[in-house]
Design a protein that fits this description.
single chain, 174 residues, mainly alpha, 2 domains
């Protein structure tokens, strides 16, 4: 009697099966892609990052991070749509990195050692949290006394001056 490595290799059995059965057997034999255990390399440890590296990655000074975390009333844990719990500080870092630099989610996957679907879900939840708690501040910008045309012009001049001091070549509009 011949040994077959698969039911699809047995000609006698193939004659007895319907097309639907053959298709089901074929689909069962496909090996699923093995899951990547990204967390095995270790998750982001904010405390281990030095200040210049932290500022380069997230565009915030490390000493200001805890203040930002508390001011935004971040929860201790954010649970992704995939039911993966992510510490609140790490969730805020994911969001800051996503906003600070044009990253693809696949790039962030390597940085945070989390699946890109988890990162996407967590960032969306953090942004929804911020909008829920602070969105009212943006609904009507005319209510802010500090936000007027003179202030905006002054802010832009300071920003241009800082960019110029850092070596940027700026063309003046005439």
């Amino acid at each position: 009697m011949a040994q077959y490595s698969s039911v699809l290799s047995d000609p006698l059995l193939m004659r007895c099966l319907s097309w639907r059965d053959i298709e089901d057997a074929y689909l069962l034999e496909l090996d699923p892609e093995p899951r990547r255990n990204l967390a095995a390399r270790g998750l982001l440890n904010v405390a281990r990052l030095d200040s210049p590296e932290f500022e380069r990655m997230f565009r915030f000074k490390k000493v200001d991070f805890e203040y930002l975390y508390s001011c935004l009333m971040m929860p201790d844990k954010v649970v992704s749509a995939q039911r993966v719990p992510v510490p609140g500080r790490e969730a805020l870092c994911m969001t800051l990195r996503r906003l600070a630099y044009p990253n693809r989610l696949a790039d962030l996957e390597m940085m945070f050692n989390r699946h890109l679907s988890v990162i996407s879900s967590v960032v969306n939840q953090v942004l929804a949290h911020v909008e829920y708690h602070f969105g009212h501040l943006l609904y009507d910008l005319t209510t802010h006394t500090w936000l007027n045309l003179d202030s905006l012009e002054r802010f832009s001049e300071v920003r241009i001056y800082i960019a110029y001091k850092r070596g940027a070549h700026i063309k003046k509009n005439t």
